[in-house]
Amino acid sequence: MICFTSLVPSCTGCLYQAAAKPNAREVIGVPDITLAHGDGGSLTHRLVAEIFLDLFDNPFLRKQGDAAVILSPAGKLAVTTDSFVVDPIFFPGGDIGKLAVCGTVNDLSVSGAEPYVLTAGFIIEEGLEMHVLKRIAASMARTAREAGVPIVAGDTKVVPHGRGDKVYINTTGIGVVMAAPELDCGRISAGDKVIISGTVGDHGMAVLAARERFGLEGQLASDCAALNRFIQPLLKRFPGIKVMRDPTRGGLATTAKELAAAAKMDFMLYEEQIPVAPSVQGAAELLGLDPLYLACEGRCLAVVEAGQSGSVVSSMRRHPLGRHAQVIGEVEQGNGNVYLKTALGGTKYLDLLSGSQFPRIC
Amino acid sequence: MQQWNKYRDPALGRQLLQKVRVSAQRAADRLGRLPAVMEVCGTHTMALGRTGIRSLLSGQVELKSGPGCPVCVTGYHEIDMMIAFSRLPGVTVATFGDMLRVPGSFSSLEKERSKGAEIIICYSPAEALARAAEQPDRQVVFLGIGFETTVPTIAATILEAAGRGIRNYSVYSTHKLLPPVLRSLLAAPDVAVDGLLLPGHVSAILGRQRLDFVAGEYGVPSVIAGFEMVDMLFALDAILAQMLEGRAKVINGYPRVVPEEGNLRALAVIDEVFQAVDASWRGLGPVRQSGLAFRPVLEQFDAAARFPLEVPPPRIPRGCRCGEVLQGKLSPGLCRLFARSCTPVQPVGPCMVSSEGACAAFYRYERSG
Predict the structure, then answer these.
(1) Torsional sign, CA A130, A136, A142, A144
(2) 0.85 surpassed by complex ipTM
(3) Is B253 strand, coil or helix?
């Protein structure tokens, strides 16, 4: 059985059977998730059937086994996992469900893998409204469908009120690594160009503004998006793409630093070339935050052989997810440092942030 | 071009940079040493690093950082008090985020939070007051840190609490005032400052006129500056020009924000709630009339009065030279602990952990990796 239930850690036998037609009123009539929804009884079965099995519907889930049995694809596999605890769970441009699918799909994509299957685990805080959970699940289903990847297994737990924060989601993804080119930091060499597929800091700024209810009007929205269908054609067409990353937590600067350190090369980035949306720039200014360190959830950073970099950027720009793609820097011999050439012509050393950014006091 | 964009115009910036370099050279020839300009605002400290100006002028202008970081100038005793508040049962401490990781004698607010203390981060004191109104069974203590820029909004929340009868809100005032500390710095016998970059936001409250004494009484050419690259370069250029002409005036280089007479309404609100008292600054010691205490009529909102606390005498970590850094007497890179045992992740003193601290600015922008 696919075990969507069980508050008891060592549940040995799931009693879930192919249910008789669920009594809609029994679930929908209950407005909130209670601990009973996690105890393996009828409420659990209906929760799973009404929401997850219904919305994520696919042949694997319909089998309702304890595990999904999938065909083993040829070649190498990529596996990744991520947990999502974002607050607030709904924000302009997305929600925790959409994020949970995109985050894992993107980790696979930037590793050169085509997403094959996903799993989704939920830890729900007692008291979460049913319609909220349904909305999140629907968002995940839609995002997964658009990305062309099924959610084949999952789990649900309910924790007492105060022991969670509305809902936490974990997704694990398995992908099939494309034969060539192999994406690897070791391929990075001096002279390569650094490319970003779009504006930076959108997600971080949107979530912060939504969470803190700043009252900043207008155009802050997360860039949350599944990148697999954007990235795959690029990888097929351009063998000169050496490595990719998605700049999530810590933003562009942190991701660049991680790449530079892994490759033991220096990156020189050009401040004036880095695309930042005016709304993000304005909000960041107001608060004394740095967009280079704010998360993106629908962008990829790529290190590309110089000769192909122009074509990669043109190709990216032809796709809706890459309209503001830009070469933002280049690789030099070095030790793993990242430098930023400022608009004034000075050069600044960029480091990993220690601790979260806090807005200035005065 | 949008309003703030022209203050970031790289072409204009490069032109001004060149002008500053030429003037700096002439000033250096005349003085026989590098001209020294001090800023007294944490936001300037960071902005000079962020824009690259400090490193572009290194070897030509000595840019010194003074006591402009409100968190950094807060003494150990005050920090220990803040931590003690967080340990009181039923108390929610509300603070600007910057205070969270500042080390006290024995702990920090961040450590207390991880042990279960209720500490919330606010972008504005209004959030703390709202929290108090929403949770009448908790006492909300807001940590009042900052210079004249933050005091008016904090004072406003106190007046609002008084008006609405909110009895579970109080403020711990460790506020510091800028003009008295400027006097103290400029009167010191070993001061080596040829010009002052004055803080744009504090000046927005005080007004240019209230800072005239810097030039009038101490003969130091000064410019009130904004925080964009063009703002700061313009200010440096204007300071050097005055030096070369042998003049000393306080120029308003940020007229789009700073009025001549200040924000009278804000000043009135401050005056209604607080009165100036002597206060102790980390590194500088006692500075007359440089702190703010509650006026007796509003003392009920003074957290120190509401919760009388005893804290043990402060313990100052060995080797910490924040005090000298704050007076502009020691460049952060020259402190023996800098980037060794004192880093943003494991700070020994506040200058390294505050987002406006000189050591943090140096660590972030001026190291070569």
Answers:
(1) negative
(2) no
(3) coil
